[in-house]
Amino acid sequence: MPLYLLIARDSSLFAHSHAMSIASLPVSVALVPVLVVVYAVYSYFANPLRRVPAAHPLSHFTSLWIHWVRWRHVENATLKDAHARLGPIVCLGPDEISVNCVTGGIRDVYAGGFEKGNGKYNWYEFFQNYDGVPNMFSLAGNKMHSVRKRMLSNVYSKSVVTSSPALLAQMSTILCERFLPHLDTVASSEAPVLNIYATLSAATMDVVTGYIFGLKASSDLLSNSQQLSWFLDLYNSRRSFNFWGQEFPGLTSALRKYLGHRLTPNFVDVANDQIEKWTLGMCDGAETVCRQPDVAVEDTPSVYQQLASALSKEAKKVGDEKTDPKYAIASELLDHLAAGFDTSGITLTYIIHELSLHKDVQSNLRQELLTLSPPLVPSKAATIPNPKAVDGLPYLHAVIWETLRLHSAIPGPQPRFTPPKGCKLGSDGQSYYIPGGVRVSASAGLLHQNPVVYEQPEEWLPERWLDVLDEEKRKDMESRWFWAFGRSVRSRHKTRAILVEMLTWPDSGGRMCVGSHLAVYRKLRVLLPCPGARHRKMKHMGPPSTAPVGIHVA
After folding, report:
1. Is 430 exposed, middle or buried (0-12, 13-18, 19+ CB in 10 A)?
2. Could you say which DSSP state residue 517 is in?
3. CA-to-CA distance for 296 and 294, rounded, in angstroms?
4. What backbone phi and psi angles, to 5 degrees, belong to 6?
5. With 0-12 CB in 10 A as exposed, 13-18 as middle and 19+ as buried, what is 444?
6. pTM higher than 0.90 for the full model?
7. What is the pLDDT of residues 150-177, one digit of tens each?
8. Max CA-CA distance within the chain?
9. In degrees to the nearest 10, what's the CA dihedral of 208, 211, 212, 214?
10. What is the CB neighbour count within 10 angstroms for residue 141?
């Protein structure tokens, strides 16, 4: 066949084929939405969560809605509305629910050993430090967490915290040589206005790092206002940029690695690096102190010493003595100091905020605090009141507990994953089967707003904790629904043992904070009496709705 005829035939065949492809294109395009609908319907009926009330019409089909809520930082308010409308168990996405009850809720999830990760995703890995070095809080598995917790439980135990000569000396120095003189200087100035958040953050940081690293190697933010501003600027600059790293860590990492695109600003990484270097410097200082033959009691790095020794023993046990534990120690202790200062500082700030708005409560508390002996005064030879005496003050207890209820330092969800075999969650006739691998969380801010347990839940009323005669009512308030630390409190008289989820992030069950006594004796219940007892008036600077920062001290 001549060449020109072959070319003509092939051209004709190509044109015919192309015409058929164009004709079939609309059919293919039309099938796409049909397939999407079919898949959505199939997924809906195949998912047991379809029986759980949906917080949004899209919740049973996609997680896009709840991610949109989190990205806009309105999750707490959204969950409050959803539970008010739909009950204690609410579906947030095709593989996520929120619980807001005790039986069939937080008791099962957090005391029942639900894991932090599902093998593919761990929300808490975001809190690793030094480019992925884990710490106790970020560990997903309960077994690994238990090993690390045993390393530190002794140094944070009640008996050690209440009898430690090092901690007593550290607290006396911080309170009587730094904190009280600072308050008196402000009160006697021409413009006695105190940035209470910054001051209390400095005090709690000095207490935490003092116990961890010893005074010689620790922070002194109360005496160094420039370093305090530097640290708070770094720390708080990161607060609004957690979403992508927590919810989509794989996507965040891939975009940055392969396309050079950042989902969070560069200054967030810079801030993290600076804080990590600062912590590493304190670790190095503590290590230097440990190698000295003679160490002043207040310079004893109690927590650093304990952790370093425990990690060394663990390394010998598994035959890994060549690995330098420097960054494992630093990552763990950075988690302690960050959470310890942050949550305690926030809680103390809200206490002062509420006291400045409620003069009658302020007066009653001051009268109770004046009964303490010895009194808190600025002096190098001063001693602090006996912890048992401070812990036995009922009005102080009520003020602290009510603030923890209304202003939980971490009011939002704390995720876990249901076990592979699944479980049943819910109560009071609203029980649902939840399959394995479903993300489930509860929120202290919602549990504390139950009007059946806490009358007028949006009001700050310390008196609600005094003279509760009905035993069942007391159990509801103090044991079942009170979840300020990621777990319920079993008794009013165990405040010493529970109040400090403040040293590390809130957790539950076997993951209850190892530092559960430090803040009780040495932070909330000792720092709070200082301004309360020594100064007659604390006046809020600004309307009641503003953030609790400026306080007039007299």
Report:
1. middle
2. T
3. 7
4. -65, -45
5. buried
6. no
7. 898 888 887 888 788 999 899 889 988 9
8. 116
9. 120
10. 13
